[in-house]
Amino acid sequence: MTDSIPYSRRSEEQLVNEIVDLVRKRYDEALKDLGGFNLGIFGKTGAGKSTLLNAVFGENVAPAGLGSPVTESLTYYRKPESALGIYDSRGFETGESAESLMAELTDIVRDSRQKPLAEQLHVVWYVVRWTDRRIEEGQIELIKHLIGLRLPVVFVLTQVPKKDGRLHPDAVALAEHVMSLQLPITPPRVYFTSAKSDPFDGYPVHGLHELLEATFQVAPAAVHAALTAAQQIDLERKRKAARAAVNTAVLGAGVIGASPIPFSDAVLLIPNQVTMIAQISAKYGLSIPAAKLGTMVASLVMSGGAAGAGRYVVSNLLKFVPGAGTVAGAVISSATAALLTEAIGRAWMRICEQLLASGATEIQDFDGLKRLFQTEVQKNVSAEQTDADKDASAKTAA
Q1: Based on the number of CB atoms within 10 Å of its own CB, is 355 exposed (0-12), middle (13-18) or buried (19 or more)?
Q2: Residue 156 in 3-state DSSP?
Q3: Does residue 320 share a domain with residue 200?
Q4: What is the pTM of this model?
Q5: Residue 266 structural domain
Q6: How many domains does one find in the chain?
């Protein structure tokens, strides 16, 4: 078994296989630690629920036919490797259907509260299309019922035209009517949204960030990490979460390099860096199967990550160390290990953002990603070395 072989002395094939397995394991652990955020979305058929979901959480987040029926009136969607679960009412809103839905919701909510927080229903969006220009009694009763179940209900008007900063007056009038009903919606306001721009009348996409902020405001703090991973419109939240993972890995790399290790043993840093990459991937909410992610990471790390970037770091550091000798005889110190790990972490964040921007669930251009990763690692190493040189010069001058 490879476990009996020192990590730094394993063959390249053994090392690749180990990295693939380690990524899969660490990615599964990171997803488990992330937990889940469950959103209920209710509204009449044609209210624009799917369009709104796809705009905030990514394309095809709840494609038709892929959900699991929970009851006659409810469907639950959750994709593998996703932190997001969705309860969709499928448009049952009035008469006997509404009564049936309310009874089913009562059972679901009460049962879920006996389960871990990640499996409970956390927030409800109640969606009304502004062109309906009214809210029916059955809809009001359903909202009251949801609130009675101690669920935070965010009231959303969809497809609202906005031009020159002004909302359509009929949408404003409908919102004022809703507020006059004094429903204890949370927060106590109506959210105007348009998830798609209108190319003919020039209406822009708007209101999505405000809706997302409201969702964070009312969701339990313990599910914010899952909501951050699931949403696709606020990159800065994802970056903040990813930076925390990078910082943890940098500290770990510093510990590994506290007793300087030979450059030939640079692979000793790989488990720490792989764990970091898996955690960043989870925090960005990549919808890539663990096995495929493992294969991609192994190839990147072996071709341009720890090994390639390590040579770049050491060869550049040598010129600042009198009598250091050749690259082969160099050692990796705590500072070098930390620098390299941070460079790889930042490069992987860039890869995640590239994948999210393309909406990819499959790796289409692996060679392009490899080049991007290598370029980003070297760029980050150069930037960090420059900062370190400036700090050193400042200390010397002082």
Answers
A1: buried
A2: strand
A3: no
A4: 0.85
A5: 2-32+235-397
A6: 2
